[in-house]
Amino acid sequence: MKIAAMGAGAVGCFFGGMLAKAGEGVVLIGRQRHVDAIHAQGLRFESKSFDTRVHIGASTDPAAVADADLVLVCVKSVDTEHAAEQMRPYLKPAAVIVSLQNGIDNACRLEAALARPVIPAAVYVASEMADAGHLRHHGRGDLIIGTGEGSAQVAELFNHAGVPTVVSSDVMSALWGKLILNCAYNALSAIVQLPYGEIRDVPSADAAMTAIVAECLAVARASGVTIEGGAESQVELIRRTIPLGQYSSMAQDFAQGRASEIASLNGEIVRRGASLGIPTPVNLLVVALVGLVEKRRRMALH
Predict the structure, then answer these.
(1) Of 30, 92, 123, 289, which residue is 20 to 30 A from 299 by alpha carbon distance?
(2) Does residue 16 sit in the same domain as residue 157?
(3) Domain count of the chain?
(4) What is the tens place of the pLDDT at every residue in 12-35?
């Protein structure tokens, strides 16, 4: 099977790298500096159990999706429609498209932009781009994907490559669970540029995460989504699953001068809460703080 990963960041490189390591034909579509590094010496894949060079294709040209039977969309939420526009002229009619993105609505947005089915997926992986063409994997690396044509084959492909993957008819609950995790932790790590272990050691920060989660749960349940447990149990799940040394993806974006996904995370909770009549003041404060940090960064560039 020919596979293309649209977006060669930490998510695209991890899942594309795992598939290529298992012998699949994969091309990563990303930024010039990563593509040049991968062309020169392969993708450096650094994990707890191995540190190796993976031979994998790489291109800056969206036309590289043209021969792909499977397209993994791994771009940031803010780039969803742009990625769809870039890919649309080249996609094979029978290509299976899977959204491996943060947020709960990217698959729907891709479907609307591409006028074809897209399989949603909840992604659980702690990884970062340590340098050009250098992926550092901190932990996890599993998927829950939605049902659709090709879902079973995609799950089999990933499982064979060592990526634990299940198909679920209730993938929206998993996506909401992942959204809640990201809302609790992503922005805090970005604002202070600290890993999770340093944040959870501050009692007030831990309490703030619990307050964020409580608002998220209220919005999720009012939206008809089933989420097990209360805010404390959700925060305990975060404690068990996020590696202590892990910086959030938003913190990595800030460090690299990239725009954040705040609108698709805490911003989504604020918007939905407003439409449902549910107050979300803590999430609103988080959105405001991230917006102010981003404004300060833009002003510094001028």
Answers:
(1) 30
(2) yes
(3) 2
(4) 999 999 999 999 999 999 999 999
